[in-house]
Design goal:
Blueprint lengths: L1 E8 L3 H10 L9 E9 L5 H7 L4 E5 L5 H14 L4 E4 L11 H9 L5 E5 L10 H18 L11 E4 H6 L9 H10 L4 E5 L15 H19 L1 H28 L7 H47 L3
Parallel strand pairs: 1-2, 1-4, 2-3, 5-7
Antiparallel strand pairs: 4-6, 5-6
Helix pairs in contact: 1-2, 5-7, 5-8, 8-9, 9-10
């Protein structure tokens, strides 16, 4: 059994050495433990620091492609290097590496395909109240969309089996954390969570440049989650709401017309007609979006089968 610990990196020379020094070379249940970093277009000496600390594999991007793309390319490289289990962690040493055995244990015992490390969010001092609230909101949205019970969906400290890594596909350029959990839930993978510890804050978050930016990106991510993974519910809910509102206003106009009260209500008729038309069209879009979602799922299955067949070929 081989475990590969991957770390996405973008100009992490200042903290990467600390994170690597804490990583284990022996984990119970594994014959071999290797380290892999994703050089996401680094312009500092991140790679040199990684190699000096004994990193086994380096995935290089000629320019910065974002955390989500780095995560996916790292998974692909881990699969190519024969990983049976993959652990993802951060280069800023946010997560306590001593919890890696706890993270991989449910996979080794056959109880899970993916394990998410749940941070003690309420006790993390450098998280602002707004960030803590958005973390909880994002986790709630993911639980609804994925039908899982993961308490800390944005956590990047996670382990996954080889079969699970083959089946994951991330569409976002911003972050991978939410989408991977939702996909796991929709594909009926066994996903669980274990409590983990965190280390002190070494640098500001790269994803949170400002509270306003974080709120904006969080809202956009949450909306995209529902549009991509629950398209029928998302568009049908909007369409039904608009159609119902238009129907109610239309009934009001009809009542006024039947009671011979004609004056000043033509605007209601126009508004009711517009809402009925827009609502009906939005409901039609819900069906089209659902068909596109089904087609996307089929493409993901084809990709997964292709990777599985590639694994079975004699080397």
């Amino acid at each position: 059994m081989k475990l590969i610990i991957q770390i996405p990196c973008y100009n992490e020379a200042a903290t990467l050495g600390i994170a690597l020094a804490a990583l284990p070379r022996e984990v119970p249940g594994f014959d071999k433990v290797e380290w892999l970093i994703i050089d996401d277009g680094c312009t500092d000496n991140t790679v040199e620091v990684a190699l000096a600390h004994g990193v086994d594999h380096v995935v290089r991007h000629t320019r910065n492609q974002g955390l989500a793309r780095g995560f996916m390319n790292g998974l692909q490289a881990c699969l190519e290097h024969g990983a049976d289990v993959i652990v993802n962690t951060d280069a800023d040493n946010q997560y306590n590496a001593d919890d890696i055995p706890a993270l991989t244990r449910p996979i080794l015992e056959g109880r899970a395909d993916i394990v998410i490390g749940a941070r003690p969010i309420a006790a993390i001092e450098h998280f602002s109240p707004i960030k803590k609230l958005l973390q909880k909101l994002g986790s709630w949205v993911v639980r609804v969309a994925s039908k899982t019970s993961i308490p800390d969906a944005p956590s990047g400290f996670r382990a996954m089996s080889r079969s699970a890594a083959r089946r994951l596909t991330v569409f976002s350029d911003y972050t991978y954390t939410l989408e991977t959990i939702i996909q796991a839930g929709q594909k009926n993978m066994a996903i669980t969570s274990v409590p983990i510890r965190v280390n002190g804050d070494l640098r500001p978050s790269r994803l949170v440049k400002s509270i306003a930016s974080y709120i904006q990106r969080s809202i956009v991510t949450i909306i995209r989650v529902f549009v991509i993974y629950r398209p029928f519910r998302f568009f049908a809910s909007i369409g039904i709401a608009l159609f119902t509102l238009g129907f109610i206003i239309g009934l009001r106009f009809l009542y006024k017309w039947l009671t011979m009260d004609y004056d000043g209500h033509i605007q209601s008729l126009i508004l009711a007609s517009s809402l009925l038309i827009i609502g009906f069209q939005t409901i039609l879009i819900a069906f089209v979006a659902d068909l596109l979602s089904a087609n996307r799922k089929l493409m993901e299955e084809v990709r997964s089968l292709t990777l599985e067949n590639r694994d079975r070929r004699p080397q």
